Amino acid sequence: MAEDAKSFQAKPPEQVDPLQPPTSDPQPQTLKDKETRPLVTRRDFLVRSNAGAAAVGAMTGVGFAAGLGEQRTRSPQARPPALPAPVTMRRVALDIDGRRYDVTVDVRESLWETLNHQLGLSNSNLGCDRAQCGACTVLVDGRAVNSCALLTARLGRGQKIVTVAGIALGPGPEGLHPVQRAFWLEGGFQCGICTRGFVMSAYALLRTTKNPTNAQIKEALAGNICRCGEYAGILRAVQKAAAELRGEAVTYSAPLKPAEEARPATAIAGGSVSKQFEFVTPLGTIEQFDELSLELKQKPGILGVSGTERTITPVWDPTRLDEAKVRQILAESGHPVKP
Ligand code: FES
Ligand code: FES
């Protein structure tokens, strides 16, 4: 019994000089460990000086000190856990033109900023940056929205985002969507800043309205502004795109090249003829030209009209009109042209 009590007696702590190298190492070491590990590590120092993790914990915080000791003896592949994102950031998965993008965004970041600055997708233009011009329009779940005024952080729940690059049916000019082709071939643009926005609003309209009236088109495009005033061409482009989508045969007014505008009456592609005339009295504004252009396009034989406040270039069908008749139509509209 006395022997048993003796055998259970606690042993006094082993006295070790912390500055002396250990006589034996409790952890098996690899050759590499032995080569790279210092003679006395901080962990060795703490263990052998009997201070222990508890004492260190009391002085510096248990987790931190234990973590430090562990990190120094872990394999080099081990990494500390990733820090949580700041509260002003969100991680979202965006579905853009059928592709998934995982991105971390500031909660104040607009969709336009994410598209352009984070993802490098320059498929929408920035005009006003305050939901007034529509240049930045994209589709979210089929609805035309201003991407400058929509927070990206709210779009990570499977919404389908479509930009102008996502509606093309194939590569090259042949692969353009009918709405894109119509804007191009009907000259529904000038500087082009607004065009992507108009194309997307028109595309959204034609998904649900196959045969829109001019009033419906104007209503659908009311959130888009064209500072170049190409509304006549835009209206025409949407009507022609709608006709093409309905499966009807469509003839587009091919855009005129500057070199062709300066020539006398010339036969151009498709058997039509065009000539540039100069108004006797220039128009007051470009908006006045748009009204005149709309009026002239209703005349039989007139296939297209382009121009400025000073000049006008009608395109006509030579089997129905000649230059004299075109001059007469212009004079009857109240805008005679110089001989
Ligand atoms: S840039 Fe978005 S509405 Fe003008
Ligand atoms: S084409 Fe210039 S703003 Fe519309």
Architecture overview:
This protein has 339 residues and is of the alpha+beta class. The chain has three domains: 13-73, no CATH class; 89-245, Roll (Ubiquitin-like (UB roll)), CATH 3.10.20; 258-332, Alpha-Beta Plaits (2-Layer Sandwich), CATH 3.30.70. Helix content is 35%, strand content 14%. The protein is built from 13 helices and ten strands. The protein has helices at 2-7, 31-36, 42-48, 52-60, 62-73, 111-118, 178-185, 195-208, 214-220, 231-245, 258-261, 286-297, 323-332; strands at 89-96, 99-106, 137-140, 143-146, 160-162, 266-268, 272-274, 277-278, 302-307, 311-316. A five-stranded mixed β-sheet has the order 2-1-5-3-4, sandwiched between helices. Strands 6, 7, 8, 9 and 10 form a five-stranded antiparallel β-sheet that branches. Helix 7 runs antiparallel to helix 10. The N and C termini lie far apart (135 Å). 28% of the residues are buried. The site of one FE2/S2 (inorganic) cluster has 11 residues, from loops.
